[in-house]
C-alpha cells in the first residue's frame, strides 16, 4: 500500500516538474517570454489523473464538448507509449479556460476523476534562497499529501432513518461499495442519535460510497455522507463557527431586514410538485424546462422503489418566490369534459395555450409541494377515503407484491435460476390478467413456487403458521416494518367477519395448505391418494388479508433444503383467481353455513322449506337426510379393525365349507 502511494507521489512530482518545464519552453532563463508564451498564458489547463488509455485526440474531444479547444497534449511514457497520467489543454480564450476549470474539475473521464489547474509559467528569477524555499514547500506539500493518504477512509452518515437500529444494518447498507473494516452507530443510553460512521478498507471504496449515497433516500429519509474528521478537528471547527457567530451578531442586529430573508435550501415555500411527467424525463431536462419561469435551485424526479423506474412525478424548487408564484398561478387547471368534444392524451390547446407547461407532448399538472411529514400524515389519514375511490376491483395493485428489488440484499442471494424463474413468473402473471378480464388477485390465497419435492401439505401448513409468528417477531426486533394502516384496512368488512367466525370456532389463521401432485403420466392427482409426486408448487389460504400479507413477506425468499440437500428459496405471490369460480364457491359456502346454523337451532334436526322440523310419521313429508355423526380417528380405526376381523372370519368359514363339500363329492 505504501509502495503504491509512493509511486503515485513520484508521478505527481514529475507532473509538476513537467508542467513547469512546459511552461518555460517558450521563454529564456533571464529574458522575457516570447510572443507565443504571452498569448497562451493562463489559457492552458494542467490536467491530472488521466487514464492510461488517454490520447491527445480523446482528451481534445472530451473538452471540445464544452468549450473550443486549440490543442491538447498528453504526456506519455517513452517506453510503454502510455499516458503518464497528466497533460495540457489549451483553449482559445482565457475565460473559457477559467470556466472549464470550474465546470469540469472532478468530472469523470474514462472512469477517472480529472483534477484541473491553470498552467502558469515558471518564474526562474531569484537566487539559491528562492530555490531552497520552493524545494521546502514542495517537500511540505508532499508530506501533507502523504499524511492525507494515510488517513483512515472513514465516513460519517447523517440523517439516518430510524429503521437502521444496529451497526450490522448500517454495514449491510454500504457493503455493496467495498469491504468494510468497522461500522458504528452512536447512541445515548439506548436512544439513537441519527448518525453513524463507516470505515472502509480502501479510500477508493469510501469515495465511491460517498459519491453514490450522498443525497440518496433510504427508507424515506435523505442521508448526507461526508468525510469524518477527528474529534479535535471537529471541536476546533465548532469553536471557529462560534467565534464567527459572535462576530456576526452586531451585524445581524443592525441589518434586521436581511435576517428576515435567509437562503434556505430545505424550505418548501418555493417548491412545486409536478405530475403527469413523461417517463423519459430526467433531472436535467426537468430543470431546463422550468428554467423558463426563473432560476431553479434544483429539480428531482421521483423513482418508484419497486420498479426502479421514474414514477411520472417530480419536484422543482425555485430560487425566487415571485417565479414560484407565477408558475403556480398560471398553471393549467383541469376542466370538466365537454360533451361532444374531442379528447386527446397529448397537448390540450384549450388548457395550455402557450405550451409552457407541456413537456414532450404531455400537459404537466403543477401544485404546491408539502413537507414529508404532512405527506405522511395525509397518506395515513385518508386510506379509507382512497379505498372508496379506487376502481381497481381486480386488485391488480397486489401484482408486484413478492417482487424482490435488484438493490435488495436478498436479491444478491438468489441464484441465476431463481432470478429467471421470478422473471418468467412475473411476465406470465401479467399476461394472464391482461388477457382475461375475469381474473383477479386474491386477498387471502398465496401461490408458492420452488417448493422442495419432499414437502407435503402438512409441512407447508406448519410453515405458513410459522411465517405469521416469524413476521411479528421480526417487527418487534426491528428487522422489518410493520403493516401500514392502509394495508390493514384493505380487507374491509369481509376480513372483520372472517376473523369473528375464526375466533368463534377457535381455528387457526391458516385455512388450507395444498401441494399440487401428479401421477407418473403427468396428470394431477389428489395428495390423499399417495400415488403421486410433487410438482414443486402449491397454495396457502389464510383467514384474512392481514395474515396473508404477513405470511407472504416472511415466506418470500425464505430458504429451505430440498431432497438433495441444496438450498432453494421460495417464490411467493398472491394467487390469481377467476371471479366467477370464486363467486360460486362463496355461494356454496354460504348455503352450507346457513344449513349448519339451521340444524343447530333445531337441535340437530334439519327443517323443511317452511321452517318446520320433520316429525316421524307425518304423511306427505319427505324423509329427512340422515345426519351422520362425525367419527374420531380412534373410532374409525376401531370400526375398520372390526370389519377386517369379520371379513377374515367369513373367509375362514367359506374355506371350511368348501373343504367339507369336496370331501362329500369324493365319496
TrEMBL record:
Region (Disordered): 1-42, 233-271, 374-393, 486-511, 583-667
Any one GO CC term of the record: nucleolus
Keyword RNA-binding carried by entry: yes
Alphabetical UniProt keywords: Nucleus, Repeat, RNA-binding
SMART domains per UniProt: RRM, RRM_1
Top-rank lineage group of the source organism: Eukaryota
Compartments reported by the entry: Nucleus
Keyword Cytoplasm tagged: no
Ranges of biased composition (kind: Basic and acidic residues): 242-266, 486-501, 586-598, 625-647
Residue stretches making up the RRM domain: 43-121, 153-230, 270-371, 444-570
Biased composition (Basic residues): 1-10, 652-667
Predominant cellular place of this UniProt entry's protein: nucleus
GO molecular function: mRNA binding
Protein name: RRM domain-containing protein
Amino acid at each position: 500500500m505504501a509502495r503504491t502511494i509512493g509511486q503515485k507521489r513520484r508521478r505527481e512530482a514529475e507532473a509538476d516538474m513537467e508542467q513547469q518545464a512546459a511552461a518555460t519552453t517558450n521563454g529564456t532563463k533571464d529574458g522575457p517570454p516570447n510572443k507565443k508564451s504571452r498569448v497562451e498564458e493562463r489559457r492552458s489547463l494542467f490536467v491530472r489523473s488521466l487514464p492510461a488509455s488517454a490520447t491527445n485526440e480523446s482528451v481534445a474531444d472530451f473538452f471540445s464538448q464544452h468549450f473550443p479547444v486549440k490543442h491538447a497534449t498528453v504526456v506519455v511514457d517513452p517506453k510503454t507509449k502510455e499516458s503518464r497520467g497528466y497533460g495540457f489543454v489549451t483553449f482559445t480564450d482565457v475565460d473559457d479556460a477559467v470556466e472549464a476549470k470550474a465546470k469540469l474539475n472532478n468530472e469523470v473521464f474514462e472512469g477517472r476523476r480529472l483534477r484541473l489547474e491553470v498552467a502558469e509559467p515558471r518564474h526562474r528569477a531569484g537566487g539559491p534562497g528562492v530555490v531552497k524555499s520552493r524545494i521546502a514547500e514542495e517537500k511540505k506539500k508532499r508530506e501533507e499529501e502523504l499524511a492525507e493518504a494515510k488517513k483512515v477512509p472513514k465516513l460519517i452518515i447523517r440523517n439516518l432513518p430510524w429503521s437502521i437500529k444496529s451497526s450490522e444494518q448500517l454495514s449491510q447498507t454500504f457493503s455493496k461499495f467495498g469491504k468494510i473494516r468497522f461500522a458504528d452507530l452512536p447512541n445515548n443510553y439506548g436512544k439513537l442519535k441519527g448518525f453513524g460512521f463507516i470505515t472502509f478498507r480502501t479510500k477508493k471504496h469510501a469515495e465511491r460510497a460517498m459519491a453514490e449515497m450522498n443525497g440518496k433516500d433510504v427508507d424515506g429519509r435523505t442521508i448526507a455522507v461526508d468525510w469524518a474528521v477527528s474529534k479535535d478537528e471537529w471541536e476546533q471547527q465548532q469553536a471557529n463557527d462560534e467565534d464567527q457567530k459572535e462576530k456576526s451578531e452586531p451585524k445581524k442586529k443592525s441589518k434586521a431586514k436581511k435576517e428576515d430573508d435567509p437562503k434556505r435550501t430545505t424550505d418548501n415555500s418555493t417548491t412545486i410538485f409536478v405530475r403527469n411527467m413523461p417517463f423519459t424525463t430526467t433531472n436535467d431536462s426537468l430543470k431546463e424546462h422550468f428554467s423558463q419561469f426563473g432560476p431553479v435551485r434544483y429539480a428531482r424526479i421521483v423513482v418508484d422503489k419497486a420498479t426502479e423506474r421514474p414514477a411520472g412525478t417530480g419536484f422543482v424548487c425555485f430560487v425566487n418566490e415571485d417565479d414560484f408564484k407565477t408558475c403556480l398561478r398560471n398553471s393549467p387547471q383541469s376542466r370538466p369534459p365537454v360533451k361532444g368534444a374531442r379528447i386527446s392524451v397529448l397537448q390540450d390547446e384549450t388548457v395550455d395555450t402557450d405550451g409552457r407547461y407541456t413537456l414532450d407532448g404531455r400537459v404537466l399538472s403543477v401544485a404546491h409541494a408539502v413537507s414529508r411529514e404532512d405527506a405522511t400524515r395525509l397518506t395515513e389519514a385518508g386510506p379509507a377515503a382512497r379505498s372508496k375511490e379506487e376502481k381497481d376491483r381486480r386488485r391488480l395493485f397486489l401484482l408486484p407484491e413478492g417482487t424482490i428489488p435488484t438493490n435488495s440484499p436478498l436479491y444478491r442471494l438468489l441464484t441465476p435460476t431463481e432470478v429467471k424463474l421470478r422473471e418468467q413468473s412475473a411476465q406470465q402473471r401479467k399476461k394472464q390478467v391482461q388477457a382475461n378480464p375475469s381474473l383477479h388477485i386474491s386477498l387471502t390465497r398465496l401461490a408458492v413456487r420452488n417448493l422442495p419435492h419432499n414437502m407435503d401439505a402438512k409441512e407447508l401448513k406448519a410453515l405458513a403458521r410459522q411465517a405469521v409468528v416469524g413476521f411479528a417477531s421480526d417487527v418487534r426486533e426491528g428487522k422489518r416494518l410493520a403493516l401500514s394502516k392502509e394495508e390493514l384496512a384493505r380487507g374491509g368488512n369481509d376480513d372483520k367477519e372472517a376473523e369473528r367466525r375464526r375466533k368463534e370456532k377457535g381455528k387457526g389463521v391458516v385455512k388450507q395448505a395444498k401441494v399440487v401432485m401428479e401421477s407418473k403420466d403427468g396428470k394431477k392427482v389428489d395428495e390423499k391418494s399417495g400415488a403421486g409426486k410433487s410438482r414443486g408448487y402449491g397454495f396457502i389460504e389464510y383467514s384474512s388479508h392481514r395474515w396473508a400479507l404477513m405470511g407472504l413477506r416472511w415466506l418470500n425468499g425464505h430458504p429451505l433444503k430440498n431432497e438433495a440437500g441444496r438450498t432453494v428459496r421460495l417464490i411467493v405471490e398472491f394467487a390469481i383467481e377467476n371471479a366467477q369460480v370464486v363467486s360460486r364457491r362463496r355461494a356454496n359456502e354460504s348455503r352450507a353455513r346457513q344449513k349448519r346454523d339451521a340444524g343447530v337451532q333445531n337441535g340437530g334436526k334439519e327443517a323443511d322449506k317452511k321452517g318446520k322440523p320433520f316429525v316421524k310419521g307425518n304423511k306427505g313429508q319427505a324423509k329427512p337426510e340422515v345426519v351422520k355423526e362425525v367419527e374420531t380417528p380412534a373410532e374409525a380405526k376401531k370400526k375398520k379393525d372390526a370389519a377386517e376381523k369379520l371379513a377374515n372370519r367369513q373367509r375362514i368359514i367359506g374355506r371350511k365349507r368348501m373343504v367339507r363339500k369336496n370331501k362329500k363329492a369324493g365319496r
